[in-house]
Amino acid sequence: GRGYNAVYRRMMAAAVLARAGERDSAQAVLARARRLEVDEGARTFLLYDEAHVLLLLGDRDQAIAVLRRYLALRPFLRAYLSRDPVFRALHGDPRFAEAVRSPPRTTGPGT
């Protein structure tokens, strides 16, 4: 989608800065990435990267909130995210477990 690469590069730069302990710089790069114009489809995919950066920054609450938004738009990725090593630090968190749990199957009439 339009603008995806520029925002993705900034998200990855923010992730590197966060891992290096450069919290203020990572937050500044993340804020700039959020302000860049990108089409809605690309913005959805970038929620995954944003959640990753937030987790690296130690903001578990915000990371889970962003992942919830991502999964609301991409519910078919719940099973994948439940095993995703990028979010390994969240695997024991009950809020994460609830977010990635598959919703109960609904059956229609006569099934």
Describe the structure.
This protein is mainly α and 111 residues long. It is built from six helices and no strands. The chain has helices at 4-19, 23-35, 40-56, 60-73, 78-83, 94-100. Helix 4 (60-73) packs parallel to helix 6 (94-100). It is globular, with a radius of gyration of 15 Å. The termini are far apart.
Order of helices and strands: HHHHHH
Look at the structure and give the mean pLDDT. 90
Taking the sheet with the most strands, its summary is: none
Query: How would you sum up the global shape?
Result: globular
What topology does this entry show?
Blueprint: H1 4-19, H2 23-35, H3 40-56, H4 60-73, H5 78-83, H6 94-100
Brief write-up:
By secondary structure, this protein is mostly helical. 66% of the residues lie in helices and 0% in strands. Helix 1 (4-19) packs parallel to helix 3 (40-56).
